[in-house]
Amino acid sequence: MLRLEDLHKQFGANLVLRGVDLEIKKGETMVIIGRSGEGKSVLLKCIVNLIEPDQGKVWLDGRDMLQLDGKGRDHLRRRFGFLFQGAALFDSLTVEENVSFGLRRLTDYSEARIREIVKEKLAMVGLKDIERQKPAELSGGMKKRVGLARAIAMNPEVILYDEPTTGLDPIMADAINDLILQMQKKLSVTSIAVTHDMTSAYKIGDRIAMLHEGRIVDVGTPANFKRSKNALVHQFITGSAHGPISLV
Amino acid sequence: MIVNTWWVSLVNRFSSPVLNTFEEIGKIFILLGQICLGILKLLRQPKKFKKFYYPLIMEQMVNMGVNSIPVVITTALFTGMVLAVQTGVTMEAKLQGASIFVGSIVNLALIRELGPVLSGLLVTARVGSAMAAEIGTMKITEQVDALRTLATNPIEYLAIPRFVSIVVMMPMLAIMADVLGSLGGWMVATVYLGVNSHVYWYGAQVTVHMYDVFTGLAKSLVFGIILCIFALHRGFATFGGAEGVGRATTGAVVNASITLLIVDYFLTQFFALF
Ligand SMILES: Nc1ncnc2c1ncn2[C@@H]1O[C@H](COP(=O)(O)OP(=O)(O)OP(=O)(O)O)[C@@H](O)[C@H]1O
Ligand SMILES: [Mg+2]
Predict the structure, then answer these.
(1) Prediction ipTM score
(2) What is the pTM of this model?
(3) Which of A239, B79, B110, B209 stands the most exposed, by the fewest C-beta atoms within 10 Å?
(4) Looking at domain A1-79+156-222, which of 3.40.50.300, 3.65.10.10, 3.40.50.1970, 3.40.50.10240 is its CATH number?
(5) Residues of chain B whose C-beta is under 8 A from some C-beta in A?
């Protein structure tokens, strides 16, 4: 349903994406792994066109997302949920206003209905009774989860998670993994998740793709990944400082 | 052959700031165009406007306009008082009899020039800086991107309410500055200079015409647009952490203040034609 074709992006002299090709099937959870600074966040942003790629195409159901005008793009974006790496909560608004932002602006649900949905989504990420607080009063992990609640509030078809479990305690991280799995099973959401956390990658991923030096070097199921002969993949998933990937 | 002689590097050095300035000016006009188009679009959707934008605009009006009243009126009051002293004491010493013009000078200067310019500069410092910092912070913490993912145009959501509030509030602040400045001048003139109250107001009445009031308000409207657009432009262009926010804030205030004063000169010349 979602296909990335030959995506290139550079910032000044820094070549970040150098031809990313990847296909994500409907209802699948694709996990993207890769070292810090490889361009995983940039890749996610290119998909929803928060960053304009220099070259390449993003196909959604056979339509090129990059060719659309502002209105068409806004329309397509409603089908996406995006969890930012840094949560990106609106800090002048309360938690309730953050989570309900899209619902208030894009739907004509009643106030009571919106409150109910907010409560439900917050409960899904393990939070309650924080509706009236401001983001500045929350811990890092709580912010992340509010960001997640905001991303899923509109029941999107495609959810992009940028490091959903980073900064959470192991128990909460597992709960979030369960949540991602549930969303896939019950609502048949298509997801792309960026993560460094291999436990999480194995648990939620139908397939895993590794981004290295601006390209996808390997794609496969978690089982295949564990047995991969690719030295880059092997070094990454075993978390070794020694191997073909240089540290600098 | 060495092409890179001293004059080539000299040209490069001086041409890039010039080019940057033109680029900046271009971007500012594009932003202004986007805001105006956005406003026109919203006016055609009264329901959406009333539900989302009316509360946002009200909030900004209180933030920017109402909360600026104390600074603006204090400054204006003392400026009016100073003008009265300068006319009634300093001028009087050099040109006997000058003090009967106190009412004319204070009011004309305030209404045509000082009211709009001082309130414009004060609001630039107070509101322009805050606006650039707020939007700059939202930019670097990805909140502006987050708006986009929620299918909300940042220009519509962030820029338009601020722009509309400033455009409405600036002339009102200028009027307050005029009134308070005039009262300040009157106080000094009657209490300290011993000018008859009647003479003060009569002087004001014969010199200040409707046209002067109009030019003053037109100026303040333009100043409001200038300070707002510079602050928004710098805010949205912010990059590079806390330092970037600092740069955006300083840049917004400095550029807006300079532009405001330059434009003031040309507007004054223009209004003097009629
Ligand atoms: N807006 C930007 N302007 C300039 N360079 C950028 C920008 N965004 C990202 N980069 C650069 O792109 C590269 C990839 O950044 P990105 O944030 O995608 O890394 P990442 O893979 O998500 O890393 P991490 O796992 O640490 O989050 C980095 O070298 C970064 O410096
Ligand atoms: Mg990242």
Answers:
(1) 0.91
(2) 0.90
(3) A239
(4) 3.40.50.300
(5) 52, 134, 138, 141-143, 145-153
